[in-house]
Amino acid sequence: MESDPREGESSEAQLLRDVDAIRARTAPLAPRGHALLQVAYTVFLAAYMGVFAFAGSNEAGASSFGGLTFVLIFPPLLVSSGLFNGANERFRTRLRDPSRRPLSLGFFFVVLAALLIWGLAGGRYPWWVALITAGLTFVSFGIRPLRVVLRARASTDETLTPQPLPVPARVTTILIGVYLAAVCATALSLTVASLVMVLGMVAVIVAVSAQAAPWGLLRTGYEWRVPQWTAFGIAALVMFLLAVLIIATDIVTPVVAVGAGALVAVCLSGAAFIPGRSRGTSAA
Amino acid sequence: MAALGDDIELDFASLRDAIEADDSALSKGISHLEKLGYVKVTKGYVGARPRTWVRSTTKGRRAFERHVGALRAITGAG
After folding, report:
1. Chain B residues whose beta carbon lies within 8 Å of the beta carbon of residue A23
2. Which residues pair with B52 in a beta bridge?
3. Reported pTM
4. What is the pLDDT of residues A69-97, one digit of tens each?
5. Rounded to whole angstroms, how far apart are CA atoms A112 and A122?
6. Strand segments (E) across A88-230
7. What's the ipTM?
8. Which domains does chain B have, with CATH numbers?
């Protein structure tokens, strides 16, 4: 652990030299890959908060807040938490979890509580509050990882080889698609959609709790790479957009809802067969 | 502590390679620092294998900076 002393060098000087050497060795280990994951998740979270806030705005009807909107936007959030926790495990160097920063977390919950209380009390606000909410969410959690992404150089290590997803992760990916698709397709019937959502939530909780199971959400998130994350991002975008359209327009018919569900199912089911994580852990 | 910068976590293997120590010495060191509240340890899984991540705490970074400051004062390195 300690370097060899140089002639005439005091032990204190040797220790200082060791400190500099260690810092030089760890400087290239910037957690760029993990920071990218955090930025992506923050964008997702910001979109969620934006739609959540939009549901309580002047644009929304009385039934949208906490009803259909929640049914559409909560399942992706719930599923994503397990997946992202699993993906976290891939990185040898990681940024400290921003949700553990008291200020960021406190701010997030204050905004969430304020919107919830305001909405439940029947209050309304301009639609652009939703944009501000989304922006503030990103600033709270995304600025630091974004700085790391912009500062650190991308790894040029091309020795990682894409491999097909393991069968359990593939099955779980397809089932995630089926669940989210079912929520979309039944979105116009609050009762049915709520039932689908709750039944799916039970399955998700089981899948998150099974930490070491190869079919669990953590392991599935660990196995996912860009194609699967892209498909999940598209699926979440479709669901959030469907929620916004239901709130703000009358164009969402049962055919549109089923079509959105089909798109979600195709995205995730197709991505399940695209080569995923390379064998071995990401060095970033 | 030199390897654990502000706001990052290193896994056990990366930390071991950075300070060029062996597993046993590093484990003992981490346990000692954790007891002092200088580092926090997070356990997780890589696939099916358990893994350990280590990060410094504010208390640990301050103590380390004080220590480095004292070393510099002794050596006159400023």
Report:
1. 2-3, 5
2. B43
3. 0.83
4. 888 999 999 999 999 988 988 888 888 76
5. 16
6. 93-95, 162-163
7. 0.81
8. 9-75 (1.10.10.10)
